[in-house]
Every structure is written in C-alpha cells, then in structure tokens.
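User: For my dataset I need records formatted as: sequence, then structure tokens, nothing else. Please produce one.
Assistant:
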Amino acid sequence: MCLLLRDTEDHIAWLLQHGWHEKALAAVEAGQGRTELLNEVGSRYLDHLIIERKYAEAAQLCPKILRGSPSAWERWVFHFAHLRQLSVLIPYIPIDNPQLSDTAYEVALVALTTNATFHELLLTTIKSWPPALYSASPVISAIEPQLNSSSMTDPLKEALAELYVINSQYEKGLSLFAELLKPEVFEFIEKHNLHDAIHDKVVNLMILDSKRAIQLLIQHRDIIPPFEVVEQLLHTSKSCDKKYLLHQYLHALFETDIHAGKDYHDMQVELYADYEPRMLLPFLRTSMHYRLDKAYEIFKQRELVREQVFVLGRMGNAKEALSTIINELEDIEEAVEFVTDQHDDDLWDELIKQCLQKPEMVGMLLEHTVGNLDPLYIVNLVPDGLEIPKLRDRLVKIVTDYRTETSLRNGCNDILKTDCVNLLVKYYQEARRGVCMANMDEEAQGARVDEGSSRTGERSSSLRTLEIKSRTRCGARCCLCFDPLSIQDISVIVFYCCHAYHQSCLEGGLDSMRSNSNARDSDEGSEDDDGSPSAESRMRCVLCTTAAA
C-alpha cells in the first residue's frame, strides 16, 4: 500500500517536473494522491500560468484551487494587483463563503480606476457587490483627482456617483447623476429630498425630461424661484433649444399661477408667437403685464392679424382694429362682434363706411347686423348704382327674420301682460283680506289642556308674537290706538300691507268710514258684482283705504 502511494506521488511529481501541471492537478483531483497535495500542485500550476502570462486562465482556476481559504484568496488578490492584472480576477473574487477582508475588496476596486478600459467593470462591480464589503472612501479618493482630467469617463463618473450614494453624500451623487442625464435622477431627488440641491442643475434636468423637470420646478418654486430658472436657461452654453424649454416652463408656470412669472410676460408674448400662436389670444386676454406696443410690433412682424386686432382694441385704437378686420381678415361677422363688444355707436358708422367700399361686404353686413342696426338705415346709405351680390335674397331673408322676430316679441309681450294682470288681480284680492289672530292667552290656555302639547303651544305663541313684530310696520302696536298688540282679551288683525289693528279698534274705524261713505254713495250698490261680500261686511285696512280715497 505504501509502495502504491509512493508510486502515485512520484507520478505527480514526475508530471510537475516535466511541466504537465494540468495533468498533475487532474491526478490530485481524481484522488490518486493526498489532498494536501492540492494546494501545492494548484499553487505551482498558478505560478506556471503567471510565468506564461496566461492571467485569464490563472484567474479562472482560482475558485477551483483556492476554494474556501480566505488567506489564499487574499494572497492571490494582492499578487494579481502587483501584476496589475486584477481586472481578470475580479469576476471570480468571492463575496461570501469565504468573505475576504475589506482591504482586499478596496484594493480590487482601486485597481480598476487606473485604466479607462476597466471603468465599465468597475461600475458593474460596485453595483453588484454589497456595500458592506468595503469602505467607499478609499475608492472615492482614488477617483476624485480624475474628475477634471481627460481620463474621466462616463462609467467612472457614474461609479463615483454610486460610491457617493453608498457614502451618504447624496448631493454630490445628484450632481453627477444630473450631469450624466440619468433618468432616475428625479426619483433620486424625491427619495432623498434634495430639492434644495437642484438650483444649478435646472438646464440638465430640462434637457433630460422637460415635462418632469417643469413639474418639479413649479411645485417647488418657493425654493427655486422663476428668475433662477429663466436666467439659467437664457445663459446656458449647453446644446439645446433653450428658447423652447423656456417657453414650456413659462407656459406651465402661467397656467399654474398667472402672476408668478409676470416679469417675463413680454418674453412670453414672443415665445408664444414663435412656438404656440394658438395660445396667444387666451394669454393676451388674461395677462395685464405685457407692453402693448411691443406686443403689437411682434404680431405685425409675424403677420398675426387677430392678435393685432386685440392689441389695437386694448390700446383704444378701435378704428384701426376694425379696419384690420375688414381689410385683412375680411370677416364681417368678427367685425360686427368686435363693434358690439366696444359699445361705441361711432364704430357702427365707421363699420358701414368701410363696408361701403366693398360691395360684397355690404351684403354680408346686412345679414349680420339684424338686431344691432336698422337694415333700412344701411340700405339708405348705399350709393345709387352700387351692385351688391345676392342683394334680393338677402333683403328677403332680412324681412323674413324681422317679421319672425316681431311676431316673437309680440307674443312674449302678450304673455307677459297676461301674467302681470293675473298676478296683480291675485295680489289685490289677497291684500284686501284680513287675517284674524285669536287672543294669545286664550291660545296658551287651550294648549295647556293637553299635557303632551304644552311646549308646542308655548313655542307657537312665542313664534306668533315674533311674526307679528317682524311683519307689522308699527312696531307691534295697533295702527289706530297705538297700544301694544298683545293686550289681554283682544284679538289682532294683520293685513298683507303689514298694518295691524286690535279687532275692536278696526271695527270702530270701519263704522266711522261707512257712515261717511253712505252720505256720499247712498245711491251706489255693492263694489263687487260677482256675488262676493260687499265692502260693508268685509274688513279693510283703514290706513290703506284712506290713502286710496
């Protein structure tokens, strides 16, 4: 047995002696020799590959040869670092079972910062390795000197940003993410509440995603005021359509708060004219913070006629505005609408005067001024011999429309008169009648008979007194004797004219009125001819009847 073992080890030694390291390693793995030989054979095999400069093969064999030995792994990590070949070993370096010292991982990462060809691997490694394995500070210190040098690449810059995040230096990380135009920068800002740190990053954020950037800037305009955004966009040297970005921002700001960007409304007029002319009129109608003369010049240069008309009207130059509508837009309907809005009678004469110079305009004017001007007035101003296209058809239509309108008005007037008469008769009949209110104490006494309704009776009595005080004109006093209405054992009568009397006072007053009336009207019959009670048997308000007489 010893002889056999000796022969196996001799065979492995012979293979190593003749440079057949791979076969020797295979023999050890096949169990033909002691397992203690594995480290020796593996180490000699790795040394052989290193001497042959087969670094990739050596790195690939490390997991098989070094297995779970942290010390062996660290020795070879430092050895590869000395040879400046760590880039081929890093994909095989274990991060658990075994876990190496933080120094080994830091050396590996720092080694990748030295060559631009390794920067992509560095970024991948930083994203894949758990941050607890190493300290980010040594790696950051190795990268920062390259920030302003030609060796700085985008992957290295992103790797530095990731290291800043690991090291809780979020503002520095934000600067690099914004510079690299990373789409996730907006989530990064919200996650770490970095709104105060975006003052100098407006342009980068706008270039990256203008919609999300504008929403962010407007939402936090108390932190990043509009003048900072405008100044950065105006003076940026970056390659972008800064005027369009500025237009997008100011438009969104105006829709959110019309006064927030009032200092830039003159600028907005030009931006709207360049990028979104359809939004000009709503803007002009809403804003009061732009110069009319400057806006008019912009519209004139760009031949924006309707905007010129609006500005001329606001400037008070209504005649020129009207002339622009007729001569350039040739839209008589808009001209009529413009004159109607101005509420100036002289403008109607100006409109007719200008339309008379164009025969086709006269006919259109006749069609659209019904209800505003008398068509006969326009026809009388038309010079003799002036040919107006489709004049006969238009006059027939005017007459028909006029007759229809007159008929509708007459019908409405008849309905209105009938309603007025009916309502007046109804009001008169109701106003002639009195409302007899029983003695309050009697009501209260009757209410006490039923124990369950005592509170209701008291409430009704108090509400009745309140109603009398609120609806009578004499301050809850009789209009004849001027005593309070709430005298015991005396009923109260209130008329719809809001005059109130004691029943005894009213009856006495009416008797006096009847005696005087009989002396004058002894030969006249009852006032009502429809069978209703006569004046003598009906109570009336003394004051109102006397005034009417």
